[in-house]
């Protein structure tokens, strides 16, 4: 079936959605999903767009635009992050919601995928304006979210404080404290210690599993981490201090740094905490951000944005393990090239690699519903057991069917979502 066989609703006309759609068509062809079932599986159940007027500090009124996309509710509530970004579109939210559905199904969570956010650069807002906008967004979402309908979490541009404002706004409406409406909130409000670090810790665990699978000693490896935000910085620190790797390259939106002798990751992490970016970090050679991806290393971790591994650079990668900490960092065209290089490049696909965050978010949600909290040791142990099970399932399917790791991982997720939707049937 052609990659263009699914019609595209104009509201989803976004490059990221088109990429997710093409990935789905590849998986659908692999699984031989009948044509009349495909649109039902991929298209979101609900896409919401809201206007968000607020009073700016100077007394003026400005209207921002917010979105929320809920992919499916066949297995439970939807789950997904809330992103504040100046170029956010509803199509991008839809793609991220779809990927979250496959991810949750792959690791066995009773969720559908969701994603939302506000089209804004949060750095242009004062703390007061940020709170006003966040509360207004949750106020507009009240008809569409609940602990059993859609559970929000942090994403790019948001943090635990914003989740606290979301929780408070919803709780005031409900008349009681409803901590389970969001995850990634402050520990003082029922958040789980280590939730912020969960995605990065999961990435480190899976990199170690991949290297063990390849019989490679992590302490003898070098790594490059593209993106030094929450996920990237935790991953870099974990690889350096837990796995013993030499981190030879890091980057953020201001700088890309490379030093074959190794960068001082503790100093870089402290610098970003104090200054916000790597722009003035004194160590390492400044290199072109795109060049950083193709410099030699054992482990390459794209931990920033979508579509950075493309047909133009996939053949130039000089890593042994590609660990996709970001969502959708590799385009389908690049996948075709990497499929031919499977003996050279071991891919840990995004739906598996960055699933640690949503797994620990699930733990936080469950503990909030039960009002019964676990120790940090229990949380970490449960996280690693789920990741180990999913990693083993992906490797086995890839080997048994002689397919790529991405096809194996996504096909497991799609199969489980499809089975749930078929079992639920169509409402007459």
Topology summary:
Elements: H1 15-31, H2 35-42, E1 46-55, E2 61-70, E3 78-85, H3 90-106, E4 112-119, H4 127-141, E5 150-154, H5 160-174, H6 195-213, E6 222-226, H7 230-241, E7 246-251, E8 256-258, H8 265-275, E9 285-286, H9 289-292, E10 299-302, E11 321-323, H10 332-340, E12 346-348, H11 350-353, H12 356-370, H13 376-401, H14 405-424
Parallel strand pairs: 3-4, 3-5, 6-7, 6-10, 10-11, 11-12
Antiparallel strand pairs: 1-2, 2-4, 7-8, 8-9
Tags for this entry?
alpha/beta, Rossmann fold, 2 domains, 14 helices, seven-stranded mixed beta sheet, 428 residues, five-stranded mixed beta sheet
Please sum up the structure shown:
This protein is of the alpha/beta class and 428 residues long. The chain is built from 14 helices and 12 strands. A 7-stranded mixed sheet has the order 9-8-7-6-10-11-12. A 5-stranded mixed sheet has the order 1-2-4-3-5, sandwiched between helices.
Identify the strand order in the major beta sheet.
9-8-7-6-10-11-12
> Roughly how many Å apart are the termini?
29 Å
Q: What is the CATH architecture assignment of the largest domain? A: 3-Layer(aba) Sandwich
What's the number of extended β-strand segments? 12
CATH superfamily of the largest domain: Leucine Dehydrogenase, chain A, domain 1
Mean pLDDT: 94
Output the CATH topology of the largest domain: Rossmann fold
Structural class determined from secondary elements: alpha/beta
Question: From N to C, what is the helix and strand string?
Answer: HHEEEHEHEHHEHEEHEHEEHEHHHH
């Amino acid at each position: 079936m052609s990659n263009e066989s699914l019609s595209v609703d104009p509201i989803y006309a976004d490059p990221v959605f088109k990429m997710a759609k093409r990935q789905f068509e590849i998986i659908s062809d692999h699984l031989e999903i009948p044509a009349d079932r495909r649109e039902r599986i991929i298209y979101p159940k609900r896409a919401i767009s809201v206007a968000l007027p607020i009073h700016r500090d100077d007394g003026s009124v400005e209207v921002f635009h917010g979105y929320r996309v809920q992919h499916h509710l066949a297995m439970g509530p939807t789950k997904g992050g809330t992103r504040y970004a100046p170029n956010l579109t509803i199509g991008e939210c839809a793609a991220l919601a779809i990927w979250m559905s496959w991810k949750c199904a792959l690791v066995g969570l009773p969720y559908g995928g969701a994603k939302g956010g506000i089209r804004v650069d949060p750095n242009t807002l004062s703390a007061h304006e940020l709170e006003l906008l966040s509360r207004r967004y949750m106020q507009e979402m009240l008809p569409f979210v609940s602990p059993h309908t859609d559970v929000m979490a942090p994403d790019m541009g948001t943090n635990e404080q914003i989740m606290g404002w979301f929780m408070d706004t919803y709780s005031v409406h409900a008349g009681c404290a409803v901590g389970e409406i969001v995850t990634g909130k402050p520990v003082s409000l029922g958040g789980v210690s280590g939730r912020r670090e969960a995605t990065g810790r999961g990435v480190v665990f899976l990199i170690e599993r991949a290297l063990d699978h390849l019989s490679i000693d992590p302490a003898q490896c070098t790594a490059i981490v593209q993106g030094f935000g929450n996920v990237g910085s935790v991953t870099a620190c974990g690889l350096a201090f837990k796995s013993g790797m030499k981190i030879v390259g890091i980057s953020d939106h201001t700088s890309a740094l490379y030093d074959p002798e190794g960068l001082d990751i503790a100093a870089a992490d402290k610098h970003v905490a104090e200054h916000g970016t790597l722009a003035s970090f004194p160590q390492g050679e400044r290199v072109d951000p795109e060049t950083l991806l193709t410099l030699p290393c054992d482990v390459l971790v794209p931990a920033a944005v979508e579509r950075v591994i493309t047909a133009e650079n996939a053949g130039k990668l000089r890593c042994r393990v590609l660990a996709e900490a970001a969502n959708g960092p590799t385009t389908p065209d690049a996948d075709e090239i990497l499929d031919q290089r499977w003996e050279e490049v071991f891919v840990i696909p995004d739906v598996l690699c960055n699933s640690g965050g949503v797994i620990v978010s699930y733990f936080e949600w469950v503990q909030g519903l039960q009002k019964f909290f676990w120790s940090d040791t229990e949380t970490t142990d449960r996280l690693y057991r789920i990741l180990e099970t999913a990693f083993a399932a992906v490797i086995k399917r890839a080997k048994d069917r002689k397919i790529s790791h991405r096809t194996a991982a996504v096909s497991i997720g799609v199969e489980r979502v499809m089975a749930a939707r078929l079992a639920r049937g169509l409402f007459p």
